[in-house]
Amino acid sequence: MLKNLSKSSFISFYNPQRVRNFRERIIAIILFGCGVFSILVTIGIIVSLFSEAIGFFLRPEVNLITFLTGTNWRPLASQVSPENFGVRPLIRGTLMIAVISGSIALPLGLGSAIFLSEYASDRLRSVLKPLLELLAGIPTVVYGYFALSFVTPILKRVLEDQLGIRVSFFNAFSAAFVVGIMIIPIIASISEDAMRAVPRSLREGAYALGATKFEVSTKVVVPAALSGIISAFIIGISRAIGETMAVTIAAGATPRMTLNPLDGIQTMTAFIVQVSFGDAPAGSINGQSIFAVGATLFTMTFVMNIISASILKRFREVYE
Amino acid sequence: MNLTSNIQSYSINFHDNVTIISANQINIFYSGKLVVENFNLQVPKNKITALIGPSGCGKSSVIRSFNRMNDIIPGFSLEGEIIYKGKNIYSSREDPVRIRRQIGMVFQKPNPFPKSIYENVAFGARINKYQGDLDELVESSLIQAALWDEVKDKLKESAYALSGGQQQRLCIARAIAVSPDILLMDEPASALDPVATLKIEELMQELKEKYTIIVVTHNMQQASRVSDFTAFMSLDREKIEDRIGVLVEFDETTKLFTNPKLKETEDYITGRFG
């Protein structure tokens, strides 16, 4: 009797159907956990970022209005007053890097994507694309020293020695230049994927009307792949805005309200690095200021993503 | 069976018609492999010439050679000549872009651009720097393609909002907007339902007043309904393993379908083969 029972329960436990269902459920739970984990971490980052930032703004020495409108960023000055906590120089520094690197990387990235997708033979592409993606694998600290030890000296030799234009040793342009180079592979690679996904029938339709290769590329393929290309631009620019190492090394540590890219500046990310490397105690005004700057940076990229998503919706050409 | 001599004997039937484009002993290769051998065809002006034959016999390869569409396929090469307006379009002096502006093409699957209906029709004119009134051109092209009444109130809407048959007529409007001489149609109705197919066929009858049409079709009833001349292609029976397409018979459509000269043609059109 007992023997019988144990046998039957043994069989029921190893009922293949039930075992399979059980395993499927476990797999589903594990996969769900993977998804939830990253969401929870993101929520954790947002909560810690904004709670410290709110703590910063509740201090009597600062207020939100002068933080957003002020043009002096001197958090380490001996006199702690709202005038010394205006974040605009840091925002301007970050935007300057983003604009300059973007205007270098967007045309070059799109150009190389068009070449890879429309002009290069399969063999050439299979060599060039991995080479281009290799650029993305270079550590950013290498880019930073490349800017400092190669780009800046050339700028100095050409602009300062030949034309008499003063170039700071730490300057925004060198940093933005290498950041631009850094994001070319991202923009080129994602844009190229989007362009290759455009069906050949659309290209043939244009060729049959007497379009040249360039007209097919720019008037049919690029518009049809626009949503992917804009995503590539957004990812590239977000990377430029968030870029830390190269700008910390090459752009300097002087928050400055300037539009001259040959001046030293400081970006939001570079400021966060500077304070983190110092010995600002947690809960101090300096310790909290980096969270306020971080929250500002986060809000900026977030708003940018929303704006670009709505632009995307309006202009993209949907093909089946 | 010597195919070449057969073909030469057919070309004498067309003394009443002006030849607009002719293929002279063309061989088509993809990556060095011969796919169509010794193809000869004299296409009469302002007529509809149908290319029929079993799958894989090279009908599409041939029709795509007439406007150098095959040039965009890597590995394509062609021997022989295709004479249009007294010149070999495959001569190195000829620009494929200019040839395609005069020899338009409509494809098997409707392939409108993901743009508005208006922009689809205007596309060719825009890239050709058309000097005239674009609105007028779009309207007259859509009228010729028998689509105007259906789309005149929604020219700004996406071409993808149209049905398959409408999309195909839009592609025809797009092709005739650049006023070509010849219209190549590669199975233009094979992706469409019977009603839409009938519309395309009626349209072809109207279009042949102004254009010369070469149409590839799988559908023999369609070839007999719409075309004036029919070329029957098949795989070379002597080298069946190599799958080389050849022209078997070319004649007026009524003759080819009622009184084919060759047994192979008869077998195909009566459904005993293919």
What is this entry, summarized?
The complex is a heterodimer of chains A (320) and B (274). Chain A contains 13 helices and no strands.
Our estimate of the beta-strand percent of chain B is 25-35%
The radius of gyration over CA of chain A amounts to 26 Å
The stretches of 5 or more residues of chain B where confidence is low (pLDDT under 50) are 1-12
Count the helices of chain A. How many? 13
CATH class of chain B: Alpha Beta
Classify the beta-strand content of chain A into a percent band. under 5%
Fraction in helix of chain B? 25-40%
Task: Explain this structure.
The complex is a heterodimer of chains A (320) and B (274). With 320 residues, chain A is an all-alpha fold. Helices cover 75% and strands 0% of the residues of chain A. Chain A is built from 13 helices and no strands. With 274 residues, chain B is α/β, with parallel strands linked by helices. Chain B has one domain: P-loop containing nucleotide triphosphate hydrolases (Rossmann fold), CATH 3.40.50. Classes of the chains: A mainly alpha (320), B alpha/beta (274). Chains A and B meet through helix 8 and helix 9 of A and helix 3, helix 4 and helix 7 of B.
Keywords:
heterodimer; A: 320 residues; MetI-like fold; B: 274 residues; alpha/beta; Rossmann fold; six-stranded mixed beta sheet; 35% helix; disordered N terminus
Present the secondary structure layout.
The complex is a heterodimer of chains A (320) and B (274).
Chain A: H1 2-13, H2 16-57, H3 64-69, H4 88-119, H5 122-136, H6 140-163, H7 172-196, H8 200-207, H9 213-224, H10 226-242, H11 245-250, H12 268-277, H13 285-315
Helix pairs in contact in A: 2-13, 4-7, 4-10, 5-7, 6-7, 7-10, 8-9, 10-13, 12-13
Chain B: H1 3-10, E1 19-30, E2 33-44, E3 48-52, H2 59-65, E4 76-84, E5 87-88, H3 96-102, E6 103-106, H4 117-127, H5 134-144, H6 148-151, H7 164-176, E7 182-186, H8 194-207, E8 212-216, H9 220-226, E9 229-235, E10 245-252, H10 253-258, H11 263-269
Parallel strand pairs in B: 3-8, 3-9, 6-7, 7-8
Antiparallel strand pairs in B: 1-2, 1-4, 4-5, 9-10
